[in-house]
């Protein structure tokens, strides 16, 4: 890869992160419509990139449904994540069709407009199994009392990619959140 596309990709990543944080900061002064305990459901579509063996590869388009229960500062999640396509990524299984359980949680510190997500993905592939640790940051922007827009950036360290030594993904997710 040439140096210019990597610089452009880095600029896009930083731009998306800045927009995500700025959007959340604009809502920080308002009382959150979601500041109560209860059930939630997020539906997001994602795409990103894999950094594997000093090369960059496009990640599959994915769909995630995340039922959750908790309070304004902490929620338990059960992410149900699947790929919508299969692509070859540097001789690994990470680009194959898969379904992943992502049990974990989200922590939203008081007075901070973003949440921090963590999960322990258990990935089922056709002839393989993988596991790891996922970290992410995102915002859930209220639109109306029961509906919000969800924006998230996350990465996962997995056994397949040697816990980050061989490669790491960077994924961008966008969708809607329902709060009951």
Quick structural summary:
The chain is mainly β and 180 residues long.
What does this structure look like?
- This protein has 180 residues and is mainly β.
- It has one helix and ten strands.
- Strands 1, 2, 3, 4, 5, 6, 7, 8, 9 and 10 form a ten-stranded antiparallel sheet that branches.
- A hairpin with a 2-residue loop joins strand 8 and strand 9.
- It is globular.
- The chain starts with a helix and ends with a strand.
Number of helices: 1
> Approximately how much helix is present in the residues?
10-25%
Kindly report how far apart the N and C termini lie: 47 Å
Q: β content, as a range?
A: over 45%
Oligomer: single chain
What global shape is seen? Answer: globular
Secondary-structure element order, N to C: HEEEEEEEEEE
Task: Describe the secondary-structure layout.
Blueprint: H1 3-28, E1 38-52, E2 55-58, E3 62-70, E4 74-83, E5 98-107, E6 115-119, E7 122-125, E8 129-144, E9 147-158, E10 167-179
Antiparallel strand pairs: 1-2, 1-3, 1-10, 3-4, 4-5, 5-6, 5-7, 6-8, 7-8, 8-9, 9-10
């Amino acid at each position: 890869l040439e140096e210019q596309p990597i610089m452009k990709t880095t600029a896009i990543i930083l731009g998306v992160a800045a927009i995500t944080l700025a959007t959340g900061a604009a809502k920080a002064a308002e009382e959150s419509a979601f500041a109560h305990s209860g059930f939630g459901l997020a539906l997001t579509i994602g795409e990103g990139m894999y950094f594997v063996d000093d090369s960059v590869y496009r990640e599959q388009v994915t769909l995630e449904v995340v039922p959750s229960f908790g309070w304004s500062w902490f929620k338990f999640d059960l992410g149900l994540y699947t790929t919508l396509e299969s692509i070859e990524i540097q001789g690994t299984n990470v680009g194959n069709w898969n379904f992943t359980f992502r049990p974990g949680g989200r922590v939203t510190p008081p007075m901070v407009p973003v949440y921090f997500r963590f999960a322990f993905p258990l990935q089922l592939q056709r002839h393989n199994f993988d596991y790891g640790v996922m970290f992410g940051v995102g915002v859930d922007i209220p639109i109306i009392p029961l509906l919000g827009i969800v924006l998230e950036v996350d990465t996962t360290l997995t056994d397949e990619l040697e816990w980050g030594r061989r490669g790491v993904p960077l994924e961008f997710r966008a969708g809607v959140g329902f709060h009951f």
